[in-house]
Amino acid sequence: MLYNRFSDYLKEKYKAKVYKLPVNIPVTCPNRDGKIGTDGCLFCGEEGAGFENLSNQISVKEQININSKYIGANYKAEKFIVYFQNFTNTYLPINKFKEYIYDSCVPNVVSIYISTRPDCVSDEQLSFLQSIKNEYGIDIVIELGLQTVNYHTLNMIKRGHTLAEFIDASLNINKHDLDVCAHYIVDLPMDNMEDVVEGAKIISALGVKQVKCHSMYILEGTGLGDLYNKGVIEPVSLEEYIDRTISFLEYLSPDIIIQRLIGRAPKERSLFCNWGTSWWKIHDMIEEKMTMEKKRQGLKFDYLNGSACR
Ligand code: SF4
Prior knowledge:
- The protein has one domain (6-301): TIM Barrel (Alpha-Beta Barrel), CATH 3.20.20.
- It contains 10 helices and 9 strands.
- With 310 residues, it is of the alpha/beta class.
- Helix 9 (238-251) crosses helix 10 (279-292).
- Strand 3, helix 4 (123-136) and strand 4 form a beta-alpha-beta unit.
- Iron/sulfur cluster binds at residues 29, 31-32, 40-41, 44, 48-49, 87-88, 117, 145.
């Protein structure tokens, strides 16, 4: 096994074909609405992170109904993960948050994934989610945008939080018996291989359960787009993306589930995305190189638990 594939994990855990159902709710982000910042992260388009969702004016129940019918019929899916994807899905009044979560607890939903920022996770929300898990038997995963562990880079890409908030949120989520999925941009040009390896180590040390690797995409009308157009930043090569991702996997705990090795990017307003090739070709290239060079997830996971004493 090259790495812990998400699809294998789902099959094994739920004994059924499981698909994610994106759900869109009317939320914004503190890094956009002025609470922390107004421009958003350097790479963020106005859609937030998701770009394939139904309107947020449709109720959560109805979105689940529409999407489960469509995905169930087209992909023969039997069970579903409700995925709150766009913007910061914990940045709203607690009563509203509870209402959306209760609306997601319907038959055939085995898990709820909630995408948010590390500085937007409270004890109150987590205690509520823990009670949902216990009452309905629905697994809860909090998807935290980390992007990099280099706090200088976090500052440069205007995340509005540093590494400390990610550490705090991860520990707190673990304490509530819920799972963390970390989003990581492997090829940020301000980072180097050492940062990526350190990222894998920190994620592993924190007991994160899942990881989603992304490549950096550049959209028109974003801060990153401006820097790219002015020639201030240059994307790393595809070869380097592949090498960084493989090293990241080698240092990652073998227990962590890999949701994806590379993301799909929005087609519209894209100035640079996946080196002009499709995500699945890059995905295959990573797997081929790992096979050829006999590399696998966790091969270099030997640094925790007092490694110098051994
Ligand atoms: S935290 Fe997410 S939604 Fe908010 S500005 Fe950054 S990328 Fe956009």
